[in-house]
Amino acid sequence: MHCIYNILIHIAQFHIKLIALWNAKLKLFVDGRKTVFTTLEEKLSQDDDIVWFHVASLGEYEQAVPIIEAFKQEHPTYKTLVSFFSPSGYEVKKNTTLVDVVVYLPMDTSGNANRFIKMVNPRMAIFIKYEIWPNYLRVLKQNDIPTILASALFRPSQIYFKPYGGFMLKALRRFDHIFVQNESSKLLLKQKDFNNIT
User: Fold this and answer.
1) CB–CB of 106/112 below 8 Å?
2) Residues 6 or more apart from 41 whose CB is under 8 A from it?
3) In whole angstroms, how far apart are CA 47 and each of 50, 84, 115?
4) Which residues partner with 52 through β-bridges?
5) CB under 8 Å, gap of 24 or more: what pairs does 14-21 form?
6) Are the C-beta atoms of residues 108 and 117 closer than 8 Å to each other?
7) What is the pLDDT along the chain (198 residues), one digit of tens a residue?
8) What are phi and psi of 159, to 5 degrees?
9) What is the CA radius of gyration of the chain?
10) DSSP H helical segments within 75-165, as ranges?
């Protein structure tokens, strides 16, 4: 299933680049990712202690803000990195002074995940709400980097709870801890033998 997922990601990436020739939002999505590794190289050092927050868009970023603020109070010497999936979040917050570095998240290919995590070398990764990217989570786990899912919401209709959802459920299991928004989300995960839930 991992091979099929990787093929589908590459196919999606190709089509996004093609459609971006005529779609302004997708053009931002594609063009913004061209400078990610250069930005990381310029703004981060392997000697930095870094915590990485990943959000989909603006709403998820706002949910991350209190966590970022609390983390910075507790660990003032750490650098903070925020990655966005969507242009609608990145374009609004790319110049925020709350964090040290803001980038797009490169597409979830094995090559991108390995390169990104090697360059960032985070002490911890915190994903917000629905952001479950199997290749990134696999590389984080392989490197023993503590990884948290915060502000998560789960519903029975999601792929993790379907008979065919084993691959995505495996990705979800790679989080060291999951903070959920409500009791029903916790109960759904309990039914799948998750115990690392708050």
Assistant:
1) yes
2) 119
3) 9, 24, 17
4) 81, 125
5) none
6) no
7) 777 777 777 787 667 777 767 777 767 777 778 899 999 999 998 889 999 999 999 999 999 999 999 999 999 999 999 999 998 899 999 999 999 999 999 999 999 999 999 999 999 999 999 899 999 999 999 999 999 999 999 999 999 999 888 899 999 999 999 999 999 999 999 999 999 999
8) -60, -30
9) 17
10) 87-93, 110-120, 134-142
What is the Cα–Cα distance from 170 to 134, expressed in whole angstroms? Answer: 8
Give the residue from 142, 131, 136 showing the smallest Cα distance to 178: 131
The candidate with the shortest Cα–Cα distance to 175, out of 191, 153, 154, 195, is 195
Distance, CA of 114 to chain centre: 14
- 62's tokens: 């706002």
> What pTM does this model have?
0.92
What are the tokens at 6? 């990787």
